[in-house]
Structure formats: C-alpha cells, structure tokens
C-alpha cells in the first residue's frame, strides 16, 4: 500500500528553500502601459498605506532592505517587481486609503492598481494585507469587492500580530473571517503574521510554494 502522506511534500521546507534563493529588484512601473513583459507567475501584495507590505516582503525573503520601508504613508507610488529565483515575481503595490495623499495622485495610483489587478494573466494571487491591530476597514472591503468582480484570486494576511494582545488575536481573526464571508473570491482562511517576530511567515511561504507548484502542474496539464 502506498502511503500518500509519506509522499506528500513538506511545504514548509519547500517554502523555506524557495524564499532562501536569490531575490532581486527587476522593475518599477508607474503606469499600466509601462508594465514589464509577462513572465513568471506574480504574487502581489496590496493593502492600506503603512500596513506593512514592504516589511512583509523583506520578512518572507529574509532580507532587511529588499523592499524599501517607510514610516511615511503613501510613499510607494509604483508597482515594484522582484524576481524570486526565476520561479515567481513578488509585486509591492501602492497603498490605498491614506487621506493626506493628493487626490490626483491617489486617483492615478488607483487606476494603476485596478488596471494591473484586472488585466494581468500572470497574476497568480493577491495578498490583501490587513493591519491586525484594527481589522477590516471599509477601504479593504472596497478593494476586495473590486477583486471579487474581476474574479481575481486573493487571500488576506493580517500584519503586526506582535502588536496585538495574545487574548485578542483569535477574536480578531474570527471577525476577519466573518467579514470575508461577504466576498466570493476570497481564500477561506487568514494568515496572521508579524514581520518583527516571524510569526506566520513560514506558513505564508509554504502557501505560496504550494500555489506555484499547483499552478505549474495545471499549466503543464493544459499544454
């Protein structure tokens, strides 16, 4: 008898190896007509300004300053592309929901993000980052409604878990899961992470590694 469990990949280890490989900046796009050519599957990170997108990318790749971090909300104004060992591209997207940004700039960023999310065939998954201290906001629901309507696959990552009291973490996750029931395209689970302590990072790496493997298998079967 074949032991299927014994043959199953250790996705935590597969994810660790994937993100231990080279990861380098390759492209920055400020306009939807200036995106890089289609290549490896893309994993995009989107969320409110200052939610910790760049910090999460740095934590995933084990690098202190691969993605530029800033305490100034609205700093990222472009789509920033990183090549991960030729296997995938990580995309750091402009933040949303920062009221102090000039409306003209905010509108252009929103247009760039919308065009990218709705029209990128190489986009494998979007991770919508939610500040674990505050939970879902209306701007997050608005973004997810747009992803629902575009039938874009996405999952929610809660950040800054180290700043949430231990007793409040599971209630916060439960409330977020309840909020996701309104969204048809959302992955039915939540990743609770901390870029400072590393909590949840291994699980998120494993999820991405498995997603890439499944996408590669599907493309092979379809060709």
Structure description:
By secondary structure, this protein is α/β, with parallel strands linked by helices. The chain has a single domain (29-222), classed as P-loop containing nucleotide triphosphate hydrolases (Rossmann fold, 3-Layer(aba) Sandwich). Helix content is 40%, strand content 21%. It has 7 helices and 7 strands, in the order ααββαββαβαβαβα. The chain has helices at 4-7, 11-20, 53-61, 103-119, 138-149, 166-180, 201-222; strands at residues 23-29, 42-47, 79-84, 88-92, 123-131, 154-159, 186-192. A 7-stranded mixed beta sheet has the order 1-3-4-2-5-6-7, sandwiched between helices. α2 crosses α7 (201-222). It is globular. It starts with a helix and ends with a helix.
